[in-house]
Amino acid sequence: MQVEAFKVFRDLVDSRSFSKAARSNFITQSAVSQQIRSLEQRFGFPFIDRRHKHFSLTREGQLFYQTAKKIVVEFEALQHRIAAVRNVVGGAIRVSTVYSIGLHELPPYLKRFLKEFPSVHVHVEYRRSNQVYDDVAEGTSDLGLVAYPAPRQRIRIELFRRDRLVVICHPKHPLAGRGAVTVKAVAAEKFIGFEPDIPTRKAVDRIFLEYGFEVTPVMEFDNIETVKRAVEIDAGISIVPRSTLAQEVASRALVALEFKGREFHRPLGILYKGGRVHSPAMRRFLETLKEEIVPPKTGRRRSRRA
What is the CA radius of gyration of the chain? Predict the structure, then answer.
């Protein structure tokens, strides 16, 4: 019997999802089912109570889970310590991230890391913010990246970086010619926002409320790319992190405006589960994320006539 089967069972119980357990172990859902059946046959008891619609364990399954979890933690720690002694940086790192960070913030760090450690496989999955927390807590991801990180039980948080928030509008919008705008001016326009449960949406709402405004978006989306596309067709204006605008500002599809007299920032956090021994690859990846990488400029291009 292999420890990998214990890990599959642990991940299945933690996530209560065959698809997540399969993704976490880089196998198919049918392989997860086969390994669980094999464990049950080996011990002579069903571990999963299949009489119920929702996932639940039998008494034997609960006992096996508690022991399997300890065995897997010790085995993984042993693997990581041996790799550290041998100075081997390899294996896989599973990353869950929200779209804006995964598409615009992570790539230069990932490129630098993989250039130095090409034998490490970094699997990146794009998720909503609440799902990133769940993935890290359940162990289906080794590391998470979110905006406005909030304390959660069993999760450690480290600062990744801070994004400056800016106003974006269509190049022909009346605000486009201004170098900077007030919160009042933004609140008076048709506004395109994120969905209410998105952390950046909550932060933007707090900005408006601080200045005495309550803005109801004319459109709401769950990711930054769709927000930008809506602004590109002049459906309204929005507030987004400046680091996500390099391509649109360079091609003059959008205009980015600063806030007059004040800066607002979006903090980004690195999440990982506390109490676990990190592999050498994970430690090096965390070190890379803390390095300084200068983002591309998103200012307007100079006119060729200038």
Answer: 23
